[in-house]
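Hi there, hope your week has been kind to you so far. Do you reckon you could talk me through the fold, stretch by stretch? I've dropped the whole record in just underneath, so have a look:
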Amino acid sequence: MNDASWGAPPRAGHWGATDGSAPGHPRYGVPSSAGPVHEEALAAQTRPMPIVPGAGGYQDDSDDRDQGAAHLGGPLFRDEQEPGMRPQEPAAPRAAKAKKSAGRDLRAAIGVGVGLGAVILASLFVYKPVFLGVIVLAVVVGLWELTSRLAERKGIKAPLVPLAIGGAAMTVAGYVDGAEGAWVAMAFTALAVLVWRMTEPPDDYLKDVTAGLFAAFYVPFLATFVALMLAADDGAWRVLTFLILTVVSDTGAYAVGWRFGKHKLAPRISPGKTREGLAGAVLFAMVAGALCTQFLIDDGVWWQGVLLGLAVAVSATLGDLGESMIKRDLGIKDMGSLLPGHGGIMDRLDSLLPTAPVVWLLLVAFVGS
């Protein structure tokens, strides 16, 4: 029907049965007080309504699919709108192309990014232990986000308490005692996870401890390499180089991919990433690496920075894809919502964590520890 009052209560004498008759009955749609009904009057009342352009009428299914309209059964179907709802506006022509969108609140993202950058720089160059505390805080919050999503989406109960304590100890041990201290702390963290889970019923024990060991490696152990960089004499500049290259790589991938991206890089994992974006990440990171290594790192040479930038672009992209795999498996878009415009802490650490050991290793190889 094309009547605008479809779904509204019938009024006496207007297209509604007031005497209890059903559709198809000779007196359907006639007031109960009416006298004998002539066939001409019935025919006049039961004739089809004219189809009015723009009104809620039947349309070809292909139009609904192309224009994104709701199908039968949904509250937005043109003839089944809920009371009080505004009529749907005519769909835009098919030829009109949607504008590209970043998909996030850019103002919030930029504001949060600037704030985080200020905190990092202030703690990094004023007093190193304060920046170490920033690393520990990021590790603990990241573990909380990861274990919470595992429990919510998969029913996996990775023990957070031993992970948080062990993760903090791992980071501090790496800064104080180097790589050996980090490995020892990692071993004790794994043992603590196994023992802590024994206090609960044995159901899903293997699944929970496996997730716990993965979380211990993925978040605090990889973050420990940032603490190892910080411990060097020029540690603040090494950490700054690591952060700059990772951010520049992500920015180059976004800018080039958004403007020129046509060929998908890994459509099953992250449909938004393109090969053109990866090329932009490599180019931006190599240029930034040459500049940072030449001017920020003691005894650094520009060509070392070129290699460093290439490695960072690859590791940052793989790290981003790795967390995309995790989030797709969990069926979520973001790991958290603590950072407006960014998601959660883990959504910012995705490319930083796997890049940290790469930068640490290459800087040790190029200029020593």
